[in-house]
Amino acid sequence: MVETVVRVDDPAMARVLIAALKAHGFHPLEGGDSGLPGLPGVFGPKGIAIDLPADEARDGRMLAEALLADMRQA
């Protein structure tokens, strides 16, 4: 079972976040840059979901939110 821990609008930010989560020992699912089915590069109105296994979701959400706050300040 997986849980969405955050959603981001920027594909580049999503890639960085996935890499950072992996570097901290989490196991995010990777959807790639596929976007919506049949529309590569087009993402839904809620953005790109970053999903983690349910047992990692609580800690991963805290880290992801902190990382996003830092990225948005830069």
Record keyword descriptors for this entry:
single chain; about 70 residues; alpha+beta; 2 strands; about 20% strand
N-to-C CA distance: 34 Å
What proportion of the residues form beta strands (DSSP E)?
15-25%
Order of helices and strands: EHEH
Question: Structural class of the helices, strands and pairings?
Answer: alpha+beta
Q: State the strand order across the main sheet.
A: 1-2
Query: What summary fits the major beta sheet?
Result: 2 strands, antiparallel
Describe the structure.
It is built from two helices and two strands; from the N terminus they run βαβα. The chain has a two-stranded antiparallel sheet with strand order 1-2. The longest helix is centred in the last third of the chain and has 20 residues, at about 55-74. It has helices at about 10-25, 55-74; strands spanning about 1-10, 50-55. The protein is about 45% helix and about 20% strand. It is globular, with a radius of gyration of 12 Å.
Question: What's this model, at a glance?
Answer:
This protein is 45% helix and 18% strand.
Topology of this protein?
Blueprint: E1 2-8, H1 11-23, E2 48-53, H2 54-73
Antiparallel strand pairs: 1-2
